[in-house]
Amino acid sequence: MTTAARLMHLGAFLMETGHHVAAWRHPDVQADAGTDFRAYAALASMAERACFDAIFVADSVAANVDDSATRAARSDRLDPLTLLPALAAVTARIGLIATATTTYNEPYHLARKFASLDHISGGRAGWNLVTSDNAAEARNFGRTEHVGHAERYARAREFHRVVTGLWDSWADDSFVRDKASGAYYDAATLRVLNHDGPHFSVAGPLNVPRPVQGWPVVVQAGASDAGRDLAAQTADVVFTAHARLDSAQAFYRDMKARAVAAGRAPGDLKIMPGLSVVVARTDDEARERFDALQALVDPVAGVAMLARMLGNFDLSGYPLDGPLPELPLTDSGQRSRQALLTALAGDERLTIRELVLRIAAGRGHVTVVGSATTVADLMQTWFESDAADGFNVMPAELPAGLDAFCSLVVPELQRRGLFRTAYTGRTLREHLGLQRPVRA
Amino acid sequence: MTTAARLMHLGAFLMETGHHVAAWRHPDVQADAGTDFRAYAALASMAERACFDAIFVADSVAANVDDSATRAARSDRLDPLTLLPALAAVTARIGLIATATTTYNEPYHLARKFASLDHISGGRAGWNLVTSDNAAEARNFGRTEHVGHAERYARAREFHRVVTGLWDSWADDSFVRDKASGAYYDAATLRVLNHDGPHFSVAGPLNVPRPVQGWPVVVQAGASDAGRDLAAQTADVVFTAHARLDSAQAFYRDMKARAVAAGRAPGDLKIMPGLSVVVARTDDEARERFDALQALVDPVAGVAMLARMLGNFDLSGYPLDGPLPELPLTDSGQRSRQALLTALAGDERLTIRELVLRIAAGRGHVTVVGSATTVADLMQTWFESDAADGFNVMPAELPAGLDAFCSLVVPELQRRGLFRTAYTGRTLREHLGLQRPVRA
């Protein structure tokens, strides 16, 4: 491999027992792994041995307890910003990306927590900056309804400005700690933020030194116009959902163009689609594993998941073996996912049951089932045809699905010269090939 | 030692480079230890080898950056709720107590974080529930002044009710995760909180299973009448500051009586005064270590610390070698500390400089300087004369001060039958001899 080779970036998206809606029912799966730290520690170590750029953990600030939830493993999880510091202590090189919402947090708290995680991990922290779009979350924070789309994004933008301003409270060398003179920090280099905006009034400075990475890596997943603009201006990595190559290519082109329009280089913004994957030694064996998971899908749980992804419309009155009804455009954050799924159902004339099974593993992300060659072929095609700078890998079931990816697909990607064989950097920014922000 | 022996409880109060205001300047001290995870990990392991009940970490949601702060090591630290999960991963038995304010947090977030820490640590989480009383913190959360005393305590009380209600969202056996039937949880045992009060409206349920300890241990340190009542009704442990035995005894009697009045047994509430300590092989050697630290005190930093503890009065206009001026009663949360320090200065006719030196190590907590015998004698006296159920140990400098305590004082306490020689419990509640809360 020459030094000039462009390498793929890989995130391990760890979702409790696995991404497949029925994973927890699989005989190989530990059903309570979603709240078992040791299970997470084993997964993080596994991904680190395979040289993944990062692990990635989703979040929600509410339990899903509608009637169907009793049949789905999505009501309990660990807080990502409590889990990832613990994983930092048992890993050495892999990045640690936690989801945290701007809608129901205070920027001072999140700035501190990510700065602290960055220090504890030696520069491996990443923040998946999201907005919250559902009523269940709103009701845990003194509201009766979720915050509207435009308002959420205005708040998110200001939130990001405050957090990055707080990260820059101190210069990299502010803390001189000179024992002889008694000078602990150099006041001339201190910057008090004194932010006063429509959503936040935050004086600062942060009570944590400047993060090891300058700024922890910022990940976003917004697909709306406002979400894309915010990401193009402020994100380092965009996590995105596409079922097909052409859609991923269009998104990739659009995001790189928006980044350039925002005065950035295309390489400053890494595009990482989700990749739902079931891999085994042969295509047939992978298909058998996938079919075994599909056979465990509970229709009630599956339809409820579909309904949430379409924007919380009630589908219980429609026959499972009939078509998806026409739905009004959702006002929730699921608008782009709704469009993706509606198009998928229309293009292929899927019944509700077929659509549920189609998204059971990947929730609309491209799903590949096959041998290492099959999986690597798809990844290489997307990577080499301007659809992806890497992938957020979504194993259908854990830990076996991640283990199979690490032992089968990673070596294949390495043979093809598409993925690192050892870490060359120390920080998540270095893994991703991103500049360390200079304090302006 | 018989099984009936009453044993002392010990917390290791880890304050950055040590509790002495000049500790960071000592030649043996790593000046940047306050933001170095490895330094904390070494301290936690040291305390665990000595069978401490817990480590204890303070907090503030603001940096101290007044003019004097450039000369004091109190402007940078790690977020406790990010630090302690990482320490959970590198320890096995010791309790982990994080300070978190009720004034500028949301109960859903804190309930989740402590529940997650409790799961990650196998039942070792503790929450030092505090209120925030200063303007610097207020200005980081959209306010111009700090919240008044009565309002802070009303909010704290409601905050505690919401958090404990969220911890009880699920029964201990709600998550049945029955692979055969597809039932993930038992909806009949779920309790949706639907709290709607003056400060918070929180629907719940929590998206984390019931904590290992039922409820993580709750610690409080309020000394006002409202603070004492709240602690007597809701705390498991009270951390408290006393310079003299008689004051500690009066507090101990008062708190046990208030607990009984609240319908609890006296043993349900553990009273743990802070113990500022410098120990060495002989009294003379300890005095030399202490004197070396005292010689490093910067008057500017020392007077500023004193001023904060008196309620943020400006002392810069008063001569260092003159008496403490008469001060109006502070409206801040420092009222009891102000009373303690004013009495100390008056009783012993101390100058400002002498008072600064008197509190340089312990900020008003009893300070003992001497051999293991000297230290153990004081601890035994307080423990056996209704002044303390244990101590929150405050080493003057770290790591040497904690190391000396563990290698000299702990064996002496063990020889006297006053402290455990091995952990007998798994959880922090078990270490402290506290019942696991039954879900009502």
Automatic annotation (TrEMBL), chains A, B:
Q: Specify one Pfam family.
A: Bac_luciferase
Q: Name one GO molecular function term.
A: oxidoreductase activity, acting on paired donors, with incorporation or reduction of molecular oxygen
List of residues binding FMN: 59, 99, 149, 153, 224
Under the heading SUPFAM superfamilies, the entry gives: Bacterial luciferase-like
**For the Luciferase-like domain, which residue ranges apply?**
26-384
Presence of the UniProt keyword Signal in the record: no
In Swiss-Prot or TrEMBL terms, this protein is called LLM class flavin-dependent oxidoreductase
Which organism does this record belong to? Answer: Trinickia symbiotica
